[in-house]
Amino acid sequence: MSKIRYLLDENVNPILRGALISRDSDMTVWQVGMLGAPKFGTTDAEILVWCEENQFILLTHNRKSMPVHLQEHLAQNHHANGIFILNENMTVGETVDELLLIASASELEEYLDLILYLPLT
Question: What are residue 54's DSSP bridge partners?
Answer without folding.
Answer: none
